Amino acid sequence: MHAVVAGAGSALPETVIENDHFAGLGLTDKWISSRTGIHRRRRLAEGEKLSDLAVTASQRALADAGLSAREIDFVVVATLTPDRASPSLATELGWRIDAPNCGAVDVNGACTGFLYALDYAVAKIEAGRATAVLVCGAEATSRIVDPTDLVTAPLFGDGAGAIIVTGSDRPCACRISIELASDGSQEQILTVRREDPVLRMDGIEVYQMAIETMVDAVVRTARAGGIPIDAIDLLVPHQANSRIVGQVAEQLGVPAERAALYLSEIGNTSAASIPIALDLAQADGRIPPGTKVMLAAFGAGATWGAALLDWKGCLHQAPSPPSAPTPNG
Fold first, then answer.
1. Residue 329 has pLDDT above 80, yes or no
2. pLDDT score, position 313
């Protein structure tokens, strides 16, 4: 039994924050967009809940997969900004989508969190301890951004994305390959401390380390998955900054048109950015079944990683016809 992606969905808040919102900080639309690629981002309004976005994204992913919530065995949510510290967002999500008695847990890998959650799901499927897992990335990073910080205030947005991971025993080459890593000695470059509960970032250090680690992770994951880099149909990186995405693609030799970039309209949504981008890319027709998709991310910790997917490949391949009976000798 191996794991395969069966469906995707996403949800964004209605409130749109344009770049002009930051004029009071001395930042112009041209300055922000030229350095980040971001023109606007979505943010939860006062009193709105992140769990509502997670529910909507998950229901859309279930519909795309053609599954009911009652078929979900386990829910994993990647988030560093849940509505409450405890109980987990995952337990509320399982209850609200009507997945009774499912296992549920939140994971915090910052912007790499979705890949860690995906790895959790794949491991459960391959170990035979689950048949269908909901993996959701949900963030309300507006809750931890200092509105006066020129480095972080224009970057982040809120949103949720989800995928359904199921098991397949079909004989095909669509096994999910994942490589993950961390370096706790680099915590100071991107951190949120209890005594200073807002996001602080060393932009230059993050920029350099993000490019270096994501390139390395993609190379290692492609090697583990048995494919050359030029066989990647679509690179879906964490949507942090258009310059970072451009440098990662360039150093890998991936043409710009084969790198998914959606942050112009939604900003950096941390652990939600990859599943949101996957859903948008599917809606745009960029990842038909069988597409080789490479995910890559870097986040606080520092954490980083990559994952290779054969998008819905096993699920959409016709079963092999039964072999003809052997004539009696």
1. no
2. 77
